[in-house]
Specification:
By secondary structure, the protein is of the alpha/beta class. The protein has 10 helices and 8 strands. It has a single domain, classed as Aldolase class I (TIM Barrel), CATH 3.20.20.70.
């Protein structure tokens, strides 16, 4: 490469430890997915099959195989976990995940009521068979979790065995980490980091460009981000490398 660029972690046959990009699969067709992955699979670490679409997609096994062929790990997201949980069918959920050869289980309680003890037990249960990404933050725009609870819950879930903790933002970027306008709750993020939690163990849901820019400028090119649309993967990589106006001066200004 003739020009100097920020140093990015390299994707290998295993998911890189930091600098992770997680895409949100909202139901893209298998053949269209193949075309996208030919173009940008090297920049995608995890594909979250959004909401409960895994149960209504006629070719879900084939789609998961496409991701795996391109070295992209797969999760079915937190909403499906919550449905199985409220029906007391987590053992059936585990069997379903194994039948699909899913790599990652997302343990969340963003919509349902779940005791802390039950969530921590679920993390411990699934970590014996899968990687576990837990999620902190409510999907309810009216519910604001105090920063001290974010800190406490993140630490508890990492201690219980979660590989990473996802910080809620939804696909809209208007809850959890964000105000209804999409404005970032910067104070919340700073309090989490000031409490001694490594950003390398966090995955920030950041579907909007200005949110992605802020996290890159706050934590660098190798910040972990999720809920990225597959259309935006290349765009995000240019932001990470200072190859777009939003971050050019941040990385390359003399």
């Amino acid at each position: 490469m003739v020009i100097a660029l920020p140093k990015r972690t390299k994707k290998t046959k295993r998911t890189r430890q930091k600098g992770i990009t997680c895409v949100l699969d909202k139901g893209i067709g298998k053949e269209t997915l193949k075309d996208y992955l030919l173009n940008c699979a090297q920049y995608i670490d995890v594909a979250k099959i959004g909401w409960g679409t895994a149960l209504v997609n006629n070719v879900i096994k084939e789609k998961i195989n496409v991701y795996r062929e391109h070295n992209v790990a797969v999760s079915l997201g937190g909403t499906l976990f919550e449905v199985f949980y409220i029906q007391s069918k987590l053992d059936e959920y585990m069997r379903f995940l194994k039948s699909l050869h899913v790599d990652i289980v997302e343990v969340s309680d963003g919509t349902i009521s779940m005791t802390r003890a039950a969530k921590l037990r679920s993390i411990e249960k699934f970590r014996k068979h899968f990687k576990v990404y837990s999620e902190v933050g409510s999907k309810d725009v009216e519910f604001v979790t105090p920063p001290a609870k974010w800190v406490k819950w993140i630490k508890e879930e990492l201690k219980a065995g979660a590989d990473y903790v996802i910080l809620e933002g939804r696909e809209t970027g208007t809850v959890g980490l964000y105000r209804e306008t999409g404005e970032i709750r910067m104070g919340l993020v700073n309090e989490i980091i000031d409490a001694g939690i490594s950003p390398d163990k966090l995955i920030f849901e950041a579907p909007r460009r200005h949110q992605q820019v802020w996290f890159i400028q706050r934590f660098g090119a190798n910040v972990n981000m999720a809920n990225i649309l597959i259309d935006d993967v290349i765009s995000l990589e240019t932001l990470r490398l200072g190859l777009r106006a939003d971050t050019l001066n941040f990385f390359h200004e003399r």
